[in-house]
Structures are given as structure tokens and as C-alpha cells.
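[job 0417] fold request received: L,D-transpeptidase family protein
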Amino acid sequence: MRITGRGRSLAALLALIAVSGCRAQAVDAHGTRTPVRATTGSAAASDDAKPSAGSAVPGAASRDPGPTASRTPPPKVLWSRGDRGRDVREVQARLRQLAWLFEGPTGTYDFATVTAVRGFQGKRGLARTGELDAVTWQRLLSMTHEPARWELYAFGGQPAAPPDPRCMTGRVLCVSKTSRTLRWMVDGRTVSVMDVRFGAQYTPTREGVFSVNFKSRYHVSTIYHTSMPYAMFFSGGQAVHYSADFAARGYAGASHGCVNVRDEGKIAALFAQVRTGDKVVVYW
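[job 0417] inference complete; emitting C-alpha cells
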């Protein structure tokens, strides 16, 4: 069969299409040109094959998934800086159990607490926000025990117990061993309240009704050779006085029988008001 020059050109074009797999323009019966995808072999993808998940479609504009797309919400924040209360005190007590916090507990979510929470979160691969969210709280719960009452008040701050009936008349240093507090009362009215601690097992603070018999602003113990500022003696060598050790260590320590006061400013004001002969009541 004879092949003209035009026929040879068409054959060459079809051969090129078969090899390269490019697009050719076919002409339909109406003279309209339509693209034709020419492919060869089993490696060629079918025209209706869909791209795999996550793959880009050539020429397709990217689309914002919009607000309906599924996103994991951040964990709920339970406590953050500035919050106050008993729950915050528990958070601080648990952080103290793990040595992330050394102050307090104070019951106030302060800068020291934020820093402690950030450290705890970072150590466990959590977002270091410094806020106590639900995820951080569950992790903290799993690693600590329920704080005992005095763990919550390791450095004081506990509510004062109701005054003993013997404190309701006159000028009285009303000392509660139950709440570890001292009320300074005048004619049944509470003037001030402060945190106190007592003697250890073998040097207990005596209970009962006494009176202030001696005051010494710069007293030093002749037995233990320790400083006892603002001392107000009420029973032999036992006195109400300021304790720097109590201020530094909280209830981790104890006295030799005296009533230690933690807040120097408060006992300084108390020392200025108390007179020799004023009543002292120590009770449970």
C-alpha cells in the first residue's frame, strides 16, 4: 500500500503520542477540538483516579477547611494567677510534695505558683502555660497524695478556732492548740490574730489559765542560748515570742515549750499593747 507524505506525518505524530503520553487535540464530527490523554502500558493511571489523602491536586486552589473542621480544644483551665482559696492551697501543697514549690501554701495563685506549674508541665511534656488546666491537674493528682490539714497550712494561715469562754472577758492572749492561732482579745473583741506553734513531744506547752508576769523585748534564752524577741513570759520559762525559725521553716520545727509567733510585725504590735498581768489562756 502506498503511503503519502501526509500519511507519514500523521503516523509519526501518533507514534510520538504513544511514547510520550502527552495530550493531543482530536477533532470531532462537528470540527470541535477536544483534549485526548494518551497513555501507554499498565503504569498509566486511569482518568478517574483520585489523589491520595493529603496530596495536592495540580491546578486546584487550596481551600480553608473553615470553622467546621475538627480541632482538639485546649484543656479547661481550672486555676490561674490571681485565684485564691482552699483549692489553690491544695494545688500548692501537692506541688510542695514534689519539691516544685517551697513557699506556702498561701492560698493565692501567685508568681511562685505559676513558676512551679510551668516547671511541672515542662518536665512532663505538657504545654508550659503556668495555668493549672484539667490535664495538668490529673497528672498532679496521680503523682501526689491527699494533703493533710497541716500540709495545707505548713506556714500558717489557718482559720482561728472559736475563742474559749475564759477569753471573753478582760485583756487576754487566747491561744488555741487546735487551730494553732493566737487571738489578742479585749473585752470579748478580737483585736488581732496570728499563727503560732508549740513545744515538741518532750517539751510541751502547758495548758491552762496564766498571766503575763514579765516582758523582755530583746530576750535571749539562758538555757538554749537562742534569741526570743518580744518575749512575754506566762508560765516559768514559757513565753509568747517571735521565732525566726518558725518564719523560715513553718511547722517543720517546734519550740521548747514556748508559744512561737511567725509574723514579726504582728507580735511587735502585740508586744506594745500587752501589759504585765494580762491573762493568757492556752486550750485545745
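[job 0417] notes: Residues 1-5, 7-62 have pLDDT under 50 and may be disordered. Residues 95 and 157 are 18 Å apart (CA to CA).
[job 0417] exit 0
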